[in-house]
């Protein structure tokens, strides 16, 4: 069937958006595809449509269950052949879904990345005729991306093990380094690259120089004083900063303002997000933890109370304004000492060569059957700061020497995959 006819039939859309048709056609032709488009451009359709058109099963991996659930809910209205497997659903429900997959009754199956290390899932899915293997938010595979997920490391192996006919990776992260990492780590074979522009014509950008923190806060309040400037997201540099500023804005604007950061209890955080998304609260002050999955169409202003860590992060955060296409503003409030903070973080994250050499030697000394445990606990016991351990793991993983174990990303445990062949030394020298 002509993809254009299928588009109308399944989704009721009269036309493809830029890049979509090319991606859909490539996915129907069993080609590997790398889709790089800004948020809101319509990346999901690039795999949903071929998934629905193909006769085999397409597996979609995405980092957040809530993102997958949203897609499954929306697709369920147009097709009964879509399902989700995740740890929250009961074992029985998951078994039923797998049974339907085995019977060839499903077109699209959404799967959380950590499922690929669950034996029950792997046993259940083995032997199913898998067509597309989709990796959404594929920048999560790269340590250079802003949402690195060790679970994503497994996906290339999983896709091959399943006998998937093609891999489609999609992301809104446009840096060449991340694209390279995606192609390499997912082992995409001569992928069709579909990229659209990253211009956001309805956004205006401004930088406001500030002298002091108090000056900054007053200017943020002034920017948001007009109700037409809201809903608004204010990004603050630190967790404590979000709470202080939220309190101040609530007083100055005489409206409710919620704070959001990773240190808040899960319920408080979910509640803040839900109330902002639902329109009960018009201003949220957040750290960069307020990110993926935040897709509110009518955000009129995104303020940055401090300079973000990278241009990429700024693009993603500022880009949460004006998703509905109506005019919106991104305003960065900058103070000269903001730079000092970043220099401090950069210096702290740098590992000295001597330390890396010691780790490399330690790994080599433990050579056994080509497999090694990276003694993270020991490193910590020896006085390595968490930041340094993170950095060491990052260096060794980038050099391909170790693969952080997906089951416990926070513990930073690592397992050496290949014989130690001097690559760690190279990584040390390169650092
Ligand atoms: P992304 O993943 O790139 O951020 P989504 O896939 O979530 O974006 O799509 C954003 C919105 O655009 C969705 O509401 C989707 O239904 C809509 N959309 C996608 N493709 C089309 C199209 N061809 N015509 C009209 N609307 C579309
Ligand atoms: Mg998306």
Automatic annotation (TrEMBL):
Catalytic activity: Couples ATP hydrolysis with the unwinding of duplex DNA by translocating in the 3'-5' direction
GO molecular function: 3'-5' DNA helicase activity; ATP binding; DNA binding; four-way junction helicase activity; hydrolase activity; metal ion binding
Any one Gene Ontology cellular component term annotated for this protein: replisome
Protein name per its UniProtKB record: ATP-dependent DNA helicase RecQ
UniProt keyword Hydrolase present: yes
Residues covered by the Helicase ATP-binding domain: 24-192
Residue span relative to the full protein: 1 to 431 of 594
Coiled coil: none
Family note: Belongs to the helicase family. RecQ subfamily.
Keyword list, A-Z: ATP-binding, DNA-binding, Helicase, Hydrolase, Isomerase, Metal-binding, Nucleotide-binding
Organism, scientific name: Capillimicrobium parvum
EC number(s) given by UniProt: 5.6.2.4
GO biological process entries: DNA recombination; DNA repair; DNA replication
Top-rank taxon, per record: Bacteria
Residue span, Helicase C-terminal domain: 223-380
């Amino acid at each position: 069937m002509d993809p254009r006819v299928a588009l109308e039939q399944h989704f009721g859309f009269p036309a493809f958006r830029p890049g979509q048709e090319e991606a859909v056609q490539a996915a129907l032709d069993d080609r590997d595809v790398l889709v790089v488009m800004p948020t809101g451009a319509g990346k999901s359709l690039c795999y949903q449509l071929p998934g629905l058109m193909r006769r085999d099963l397409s597996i979609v991996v995405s980092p957040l269950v809530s993102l997958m659930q949203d897609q499954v809910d929306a697709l369920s209205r147009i097709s009964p052949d879509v399902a989700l497997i995740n740890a929250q659903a009961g074992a029985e429900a998951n078994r039923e879904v797998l049974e339907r997959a085995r019977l060839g009754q499903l077109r699209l199956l959404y799967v959380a990345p950590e499922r690929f290390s669950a034996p029950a899932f792997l046993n259940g899915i083995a032997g199913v005729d898998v067509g597309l293997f989709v990796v959404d938010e594929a920048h999560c595979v790269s340590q250079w991306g802003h949402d690195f997920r060790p679970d994503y490391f497994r996906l290339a192996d999983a896709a091959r093990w399943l006998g998937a006919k093609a891999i489609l990776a999609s992301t809104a992260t446009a840096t060449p380094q991340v694209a390279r990492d995606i192609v390499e780590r997912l082992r995409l074979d001569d992928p069709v690259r579909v990229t659209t522009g990253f211009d956001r014509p309805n956004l205006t950008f401004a930088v406001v120089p500030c002298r002091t923190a108090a000056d900054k806060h007053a200017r943020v309040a002034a920017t948001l004083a007009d109700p037409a400037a809201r809903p608004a997201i204010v990004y603050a540099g630190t967790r404590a900063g979000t709470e202080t500023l939220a309190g101040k804005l609530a007083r100055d604007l005489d409206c409710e303002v919620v704070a959001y950061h990773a240190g808040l209890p899960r319920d408080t955080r979910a509640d803040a997000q839900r109330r902002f998304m639902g329109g009960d609260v018009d201003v949220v002050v957040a750290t960069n933890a307020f990110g993926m999955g935040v897709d509110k169409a009518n955000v009129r202003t995104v303020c940055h109370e401090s300079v973000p860590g990278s241009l990429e992060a700024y693009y993603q955060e500022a880009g949460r304004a004006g998703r509905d296409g109506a005019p919106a503003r991104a305003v960065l409030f900058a103070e000269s000492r903001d730079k000092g903070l970043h220099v401090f973080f950069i210096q702290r994250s740098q590992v000295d060569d001597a330390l890396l050499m010691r780790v490399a030697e330690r790994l080599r000394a433990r050579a056994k059957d080509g497999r090694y445990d990276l003694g993270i606990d020991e490193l910590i016991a020896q006085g390595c700061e968490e930041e340094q351990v993170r950095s060491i793991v990052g260096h060794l993983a980038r050099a391909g020497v170790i693969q952080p174990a997906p089951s416990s990303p926070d513990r930073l445990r690592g397992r050496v995959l290949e014989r130690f062949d001097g690559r760690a030394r190279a990584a040390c020298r390169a650092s």
